[in-house]
Design goal:
Porin, 9 strands, about 210 residues, nine-stranded antiparallel beta sheet, mainly beta
Length: about 210
């Protein structure tokens, strides 16, 4: 599976690098470079006390769709799925996880006109939290699920490498602040709960 994903990523990068030999002019965008789509994979780190003691490192991914007002500034709508398994379970017959799905508006500004461009972003929206506990009682599987919605804030810093006028690869560190208040799964109330997603992926400047 991993080899297939790596092969697919390499194929996309190779194809996109053949679209053109140089990056877009710094002062204008072509008509097919206004819309931007981004896809990413994530390695998540629980960072605040209420979650570091309750869940393990997590994984996830996201997708966003937006509009570039100029080569530096864009606004996007973003979402994804991020899951963290329970760290301490009472028995081998018990397990569970905490997951959240953010839905936010992301304001992004990148610096410079070359192929390498640092950037800052800020996402504001809501997080849809899910608390899942699985257990086995007398040979029967039992699953308990709880839901909660909270305010969500996600500042980020990263850099992108432009590989053609229509595509770039990026690496990003983000701080997800999830204003959750549920104490399920042995997690204390978050004010907020903080996660640090480390992300990498592809940005396309054409849909």
């Amino acid at each position: 599976m991993k080899k297939t994903l790596l092969l697919a990523l390499f194929s996309v990068l190779l194809t996109s690098s053949l679209w053109a030999d140089e990056v877009e002019p710094s002062d204008q965008l072509g008509p097919n470079q206004r819309w931007v789509e981004r896809v990413e994979g994530t390695f998540g780190i629980p960072a605040s006390g209420d979650v570091t003691s309750a869940v393990n490192l997590g994984f996830g991914g996201g997708l966003s769709f937006g509009y570039r007002f100029d080569p530096h500034f864009s606004i996007s709508v973003a979402s994804g799925y991020y899951q963290y398994d329970l760290k301490n379970v009472p028995s081998s017959n018990t397990g569970g996880n905490f997951a959240y799905i953010p839905l936010d508006m992301v304001f992004n500004y990148n610096f410079g006109d070359g192929e390498f461009r640092p950037y800052l972003s800020l996402g504001i929206g809501a997080a849809f939290n899910t608390y899942t506990l699985n257990s086995n009682e007398q040979g029967s599987a039992v699953q308990t699920i709880g839901y909660e919605t909270g305010f969500f804030l996600s500042p980020a810093v990263g850099f992108l490498e432009v590989i053609s006028p229509r595509a770039a690869i990026f690496v990003e560190g983000r701080m997800d602040m999830d204003m959750r208040s549920n104490n399920s799964l042995g997690m204390g109330n978050g004010t907020p709960s903080i996660f640090i997603p480390i992300q990498a992926g592809l940005t396309f400047f054409v849909i």
